[in-house]
């Protein structure tokens, strides 16, 4: 943990050497988190004190709008220096977060060539491979020898974020091959890049970030080149960014499965009003949907008045249906998200869930019958409860098996079928099953 | 997609060149998935045909027991060659999956030094950093120059899995520093490793894999050195293994939040009986817990008989409580898992959830009152329903805010507090709230 007071002290004394020693004792992300807690003028003072390259390393971990607020208030020369040190994907994200007019002013501080390539990155919609890509990679023509390549790396390598791979490109910038730095070092110095280059696997800039992350994780790579429609290399996405994507997607799925819309930021950064908005929508939809259980129950008012003990088991029966449905839905939504299950597996999934449902349903039947007996109700009411429990378990398994797969097929997010959603769905239908079984078995 | 028949054909013709061209057109993991679908003798034939280094690349992606089955049936010389080409963490996993006696026989095929280091890796319990580590990294003394180091890399680099970093170790193997390959290439050839080495961040071999993955993802690294209690370097964990850990942990959390015990393998690899076992435990626990709603309802039988319309709203009210609880629980369990929330935040979380609960509760109050009015029940029953809905929402928010944090503090997995769990908990207590409010407001 960084001592904030100590940090303030260092800023006040303004001794560069002391500040550097202090900064070097910590990681940039830790320094960034502490910096966020400082007052605005302290933040600026710290940025001015540190060398631009160190300042950029810290700035990288702040939110785009915070980055802009700081850069905007610094001397224009310093802003330009820090801007040039920041990774290009970070700069692109910041530019997209601020007003067009503000972004243009900042872009003017960058060298022409860099600015143009950055503007290409900025054209891709959010959540695509293109929007995550960095342009700080090293490309080289295939005719270069290992020696020439290494010399080039020595010249430009300090600026590059991706150095594990060198990308071989053709005359028009089209991606022709990939060579790992390890291979370059191991090869004979006179070898040409094209002789040892591997066939590149690239993704189109428009590919969704989730799919890109899946690809990278499947093949255990640390970086993936991103190309445009003409197969020209326009950037590289790195494993650290894709890890963030995977974690965010899992968080979103969990929040959605919990019956809420996904939050935009972290828990504490979300305001109470934001939490309210994300939750109330589904709560109301489900409330209105659940309200029809009232209609169902009123429909069976006579049956209920006749055998009031039937009411005792309502929460138990619909609760069990909801639990079964939630189990199945969450397993399947996750399996769909990580690509273990596809729509073409629909019948396999239904069969698997139904067989499992028969097994769990039978177990529940026995326990439900015993429970009814323990509550001291008539034995045929016990039979009604046990049988209903079993049918509801089967019904819930069936519905929960189908819905996520169909939604996935329709290109909707299957996580919309949340636990609360399936529970609500099974509640009303479960009651109909319950009273139908009751009327038949009890001859009402 | 790989054409299985074409693959079989290539195996039958047994032309090495053709087989190699075929294999090179695909990625090892894709070949591994196809290989799994072949008959045992075809699998062996394929392994014999390919050069050991290619065979090892494919074998790497199979399950430990499948790996063993194949290796066990190959000629002992070939087994030994493939074994030496496999990444050390893969070999260790396989050794741990098979019988001690079988493992010893395989270990005898490895060079002495390698075997000893491998056996060290094998001593660490599952799900720790040590169990994930590979020993195929490059270490060097700090007194080496860049030139000497590069020469060494050229000699041993082909065997190494981790080449992005060179680890500087002392006389006793203690970890002194880390130097990236990029830095080695950029530095002056006469520089000594110790002059440019960075302070290493390492993890103890006993650290949990989840915590290790969090650390790596926080600092955007691609590899983390693992040390023993004496700070001696014993292995390196790589980002690809930790991505798998993160994905598995997210899957487990989702399955647990869905009210099931986590599955051991993927959905389709889990047998129906395995699914049954993982689900029935929680289904039964929740069924028995839910059964007390029957006791509560029987307790209020008189009230219910007097005002039968109260029964209409039971599913709606307890359903809404469950939905609210599920929303809160899933958000918090995930926030705990990714380290956004800690136990020390308990009061902040409770306050945040209660304020949000007051907002959602008030909205629900209005809608519930309207719903009761639409169902045509007496207005004071409507008031009972609206007021109960609001209190239940608040109550569910409160319980769902506390439980995951307390469980986390007690070092238990907070995901045990699943949606179905909180729903069940709120069902019974919600009924007590309902009938208490009803008795007071309706003067029963």
TrEMBL record, chains A, B:
SUPFAM superfamilies annotated for this entry? CBS-domain pair, MgtE membrane domain-like, MgtE N-terminal domain-like
Tell where it localizes: Cell membrane; Membrane
Return the SMART domains for the record: CBS, MgtE_N
Coiled-coil regions listed in the entry: none
Keywords for this protein: CBS domain, Cell membrane, Magnesium, Membrane, Metal-binding, Transmembrane, Transmembrane helix, Transport
Q: Name one Pfam family in it.
A: CBS
Which InterPro entries does the record associate with it? CBS_dom, CBS_dom_sf, Mg_transptr_MgtE_intracell_dom, MgtE_N_sf, MgtE_transporter, SLC41_membr_dom, SLC41_membr_dom_sf
Q: Which spans are transmembrane here?
A: 280-300, 312-333, 354-375, 381-407, 419-442
Q: Per the annotation, which location comes first and is thus the protein's main one?
A: membrane
How the protein sits in the membrane? Multi-pass membrane protein
UniProt domain CBS: residue ranges: 196-252
**Reported function:** Acts as a magnesium transporter.
Family designation: Belongs to the SLC41A transporter family.
NCBIfam families recorded for this chain? mgtE (TIGR00400)
Quaternary structure, per UniProt, is: Homodimer.
Protein name, please? Answer: Magnesium transporter MgtE
Please tell me the species this chain comes from: Paenibacillus woosongensis
Q: Please name the taxonomic classification of the source.
A: Bacteria, Bacillati, Bacillota, Bacilli, Bacillales
């Amino acid at each position: 943990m960084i001592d904030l007071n100590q940090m303030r002290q260092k800023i006040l004394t303004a001794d560069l050497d002391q500040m550097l020693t202090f900064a070097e004792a910590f990681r940039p992300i830790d320094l960034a988190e502490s910096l966020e807690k400082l007052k605005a003028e302290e933040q600026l003072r710290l940025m001015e004190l540190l060398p631009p390259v160190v300042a950029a390393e810290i700035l990288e971990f702040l939110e785009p709008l915070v980055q802009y607020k700081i850069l905007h208030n610094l001397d224009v020369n310093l802003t330009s220096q820090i801007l040039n040190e920041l990774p290009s994907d970070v700069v692109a994200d910041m530019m997209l977060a601020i007003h067009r007019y503000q972004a243009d002013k900042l872009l003017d501080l960058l060298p022409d060539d860099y600015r143009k390539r950055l503007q290409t990155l900025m054209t891709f919609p959010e959540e695509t491979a293109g929007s995550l890509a960095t342009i700080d990679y090293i490309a080289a023509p295939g005719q270069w020898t290992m020696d020439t390549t290494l010399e080039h790396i020595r010249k430009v390598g300090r600026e590059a974020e991706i150095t594990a791979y060198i990308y071989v490109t053709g005359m028009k910038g089209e991606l022709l091959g990939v060579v790992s730095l390890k291979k370059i070092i191991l090869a004979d110095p006179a070898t040409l890049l094209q002789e040892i280059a591997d066939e590149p696997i690239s993704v189109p800039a428009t590919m969704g970030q989730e799919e890109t992350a899946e690809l990278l994780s499947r093949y255990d790579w640390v970086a993936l080149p991103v190309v445009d429609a003409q197969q020209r290399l326009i950037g590289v996405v790195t494993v650290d960014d894709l890890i963030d994507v995977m974690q965010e997607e899992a968080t979103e799925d969990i929040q959605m499965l919990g019956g809420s819309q996904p939050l935009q930021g972290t828990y504490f950064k979300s305001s109470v009003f934001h939490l309210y908005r994300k939750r109330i929508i589904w709560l109301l939809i489900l409330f209105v949907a659940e309200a029809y259980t009232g209609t169902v129950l009123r429909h069976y008012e006579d049956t209920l008045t006749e055998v009031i003990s039937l009411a005792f088991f309502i929460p138990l029966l619909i609760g069990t249906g909801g639990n079964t449905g939630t189990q199945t839905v969450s397993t399947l939504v996750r399996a769909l998200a990580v690509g273990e299950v596809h729509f073409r597996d629909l019948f396999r999934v239904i069969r698997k869930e139904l067989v499992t449902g028969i097994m769990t349903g039978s177990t529940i039947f026995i326990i439900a019958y015993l429970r009814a007996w323990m509550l001291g109700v008539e034995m045929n009411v016990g039979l009604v409860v046990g049988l209903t429990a079993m049918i509801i378990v089967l019904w819930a398994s069936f519905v929960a098996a189908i819905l996520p797969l169909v939604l996935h097929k329709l290109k909707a997010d299957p996580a919309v079928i949340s636990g609360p959603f399936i529970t609500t769905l099974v509640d009303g239908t479960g009651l109909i099953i319950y009273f139908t079984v009751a009327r038949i078995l009890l001859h009402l």
